[in-house]
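#data-curation
PF: Archiving a pair of folding outputs for the training set. Convention for this channel: one message per protein, sequence first, C-alpha cells after, nothing in between. First:
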Amino acid sequence: MHLECIGCGERYEAGEVIYTCRRCGNLLDVRYDYDEVSERLRLSGWRNRPLGVWRYRDLLPIPRSAPTISLNEGGTGLLRCPRLGEKLGLSHLYVKNEGENPTGSFKDRGMTVGVSKALELSARTVICASTGNTSASLAAYAAKTALNCVVLIPAGRVALGKVAQAVMHGAKVIAVKGSFDDALSAVRELAMEPGLYLLNSINPFRLEGQKTAAYEVWDQLGEKAPDKVVLPVGNAGNISAYWKGFKELETVGLANSHPSMIGVQASGARPVAEAFEAHADEIRPAPCPQTVATAIRIGNPVNWKKALAAMRESGGNAEIVTDVEILEAQRLLARMEGIFTEPAGAAPIAALRKLKERGLLSRDDIVVCVATGHGLKDPEIALKSCGQPVEVEADLEALKGVVRV
C-alpha cells in the first residue's frame, strides 16, 4: 500500500502525514497490491463477517495489527422503493439509506477509517471544516478515542441538528465568518501544525472508508452491480469513493460489471456539474454558493478532479436540481416510502425525473439513489417545507372535524 498523486504519479509512503502532492499539488489516492488483496480475500472468510465497513477490512488501509475505532457504522439498508419507482417510471429503484449510520450520515464510514489512521499515526488532535455532517461524525469518533477535536463551520450556515451533535460530543466548535470554502482553507493551514490531523475528504484515507458503501450495494443486490448510482455532490469525495469501490470489486475478480455514476448538484452550487456538461478540464468555483441543501452548499469542492473522473470513466453524467425540486423530492420520499432524508440526500431523487426525460435512465435499469443523511439533521427545513402541526382545542367535536379526511 502507498499513496499516489492522481496528477503526476508521485508516490509517498502510507505512513506519511500528507494530504496533497508536494510536487504538483494534486490530490492523493491510496493504492494497493491487488494481487495480494485478492489472496487475502480468498483466505479471510470475509463473507462470514457482519455487513458493515469492517466486513471489508482486507480492502482497507488499516494494518491487521492496528486497532480500529468503530461505532458499528455501515450495514445500512438498501431499500426497494416500488411506489416512488412506479410514479417515476422506474421498475427497480432503490435508496441506500445512509441516515442509519451512528451519527446519522455517510460520513461515519470515512471517520471510522480516518480516526483509526489518526491513532496509528500518533495524532493528538483531529480537525476538520464542515457544513455539518463531517463535524458531527468526527466529534463522535474523536470522543470514542479521547482525541481532541476541533471543527470549523461557516457561521449561521449549518443546520442546528448537526451543530448540536458536534457540541454534545465535546468538540471545540468554531464558527467562521465566511463560507465553508473559507473554513476549509483555514483548516488546511492549521493542519500543518504538528500533532494535528486533518480529516476532511482531502485526506485520502477517509475516502477509503466511504468506498465501502459501494461494496455493500453490490452485496445487497446479490453480488451484482446496479446499472446507475445517483449521488449528491458537495465537496465531491463520495462519488469518487463509490466509483473506486465498484472498480476494485472488478479488479479483485468479485464483480464483472460496474454502474454509471451520476452526480447531482443544486442550482446554486453547481461547479462540478457545469464543468461536466461543458466538457471542461477545470471547474469555475461558485463564489457565493446558495442552496437549502446545506450539506452540499460548497462552491469550490476539493475533490472535483476525482468526481469528474468518476462520472466520465464510468460513462455517467451530471444533473442540476433546484431547491424547489429538492424539497418536493424530500416530501415524496418520506410520504411514499417512509424514508426521511436531509435535503442533500433528496437531491438524487429530485434528479430522477429529469434524467428519465433526458433518456439517461430506462424503466428496467437498476437504479440506486444515495440518501446521505437523516432528515432530523435539519428539522427546521422540514417544518418550513411541510408546515406546522394543526392546533385545536381538546374537544371531541373539534377533533372530529380535523380528523375527517
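PF: Second:
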Amino acid sequence: MVHALRRIHGAIRPGGIVADLRPDRFARPRQSRPQLPKIYWATDGRDRLQGVLDKVPENLRKHRAATRAVERVLQRGLFLLEGTETFPFRYHFRNVGVFERRLGTVWKDSVLRRSVHRRLQMVQKHSQAGHIVVIEPLRLNILRKR
C-alpha cells in the first residue's frame, strides 16, 4: 500500500485530496485483537447478535500493514492527515442464501463458523420476518498532498 500511496502522490497536484476508505480491523497497527464484522438477525427493530465473521489470519496481516502504510506516508511528509472517521457500516441481506453468495465477493478473506451458520439458518426458519445485518467498522482517512 505504501507503493500505491507513493504513486497516487505522484499523480495528484499539490493540495490534492485522497480518500482512504477501508475496513478498520486495526485502529492502531500494534492493536492485538482485530475488530471483526458482527452478524445479527434483525427483526421488529431489534438486532440479535449471532456471531462474528472471522478473518483468515494472513489477511489480518494485510489490514495491519495497510494501517502502517498510511502512518509511514504521513511520517515521511507526503500527505497531511486532514481528518479521520471510524463508523459502523451496515450490510443487509434478506436471507442466508443471499448472505452466503455475498461472502464469496465482499468478504473473500473471511470465514463463517459453522455454529454461526447454523444459528442463522435456525433463526430464519423459525422467524416469520427478519433479515441478516452485518456491521463492519470502516475507517475514512482524508489525506492532503503536501
